[in-house]
Write a structure and sequence with these properties.
Length: about 200
């Protein structure tokens, strides 16, 4: 249960559904309610498919390129840190400038981007495939539901409220990324010391 809760939280802050909603509404502005719901479902489905595909092939890719999990923790942590800091200093609506609909940019990289993919690979090594994919599935499902009811959420929280929630989530993500960098560095140092003895 602890593993599920931890992996769920990591995916939740990586996806940041509250931060996606303003962008989703901007990109789907002018569409009918039916078409907007269709876009939300399709983009969520493909986002989940790409994330699972990457998680399942992650170990093979690491082995092929000679990358260790410690290396990936540092690289992934840096990516997460840059993305979280970037989101902390810009307005969420700026993401909407990418243009287009559907799989790109809503599914990839808005719902599932580098942060989520990096988190997924790291979580697999800690909690295994079933728990990681289960927590990812629940997060994508929650995100899809939030997109389906995005207009109602904006009316309830207000765009300013959603932005504030997104900034809080990004602060948590930045803390997680720092921990990943520290853990990866400690593992490499320990390995180097052990090898030198």
């Amino acid at each position: 249960m602890e593993g599920f809760i931890q992996s769920f939280i990591v995916f939740f802050v990586s996806i940041d559904p509250f931060g996606i909603i303003p962008t989703f509404l901007t990109l789907t502005n002018g569409l009918s309610g039916k078409l907007r719901r269709k876009v939300a479902i399709i983009s969520s489905f493909y986002a989940f498919f790409v994330a699972v595909f990457f998680i399942l092939l992650g170990k093979w890719l690491f082995a092929y390129f000679g990358i260790s999990l410690s290396h990936f923790k540092i690289a992934g942590g840096l990516v997460l840190l840059v993305l979280s800091v970037r989101e902390l200093v810009i307005y969420g609506e700026d993401k909407g400038k990418m243009g287009g609909l559907g799989v790109v940019p809503l599914g990839i990289p808005l719902i599932v981007g580098p942060a989520t993919l990096s988190a997924g690979i790291s979580l697999v090594e800690i909690w295994g495939y079933p728990l990681t994919i289960l927590s990812l599935s629940l997060n994508v499902f929650i995100t899809a539901v939030m997109l389906l009811f995005s207009e109602n959420l904006v009316k309830f929280f207000g765009r300013g409220g959603l932005t504030a929630l997104s900034k809080i989530i990004m602060l948590i993500l930045s803390a997680i990324s720092v921990k990943m960098i520290i853990d990866g560095t400690e593992e490499i140092v320990r390995s180097a010391l052990k090898f030198s003895q």
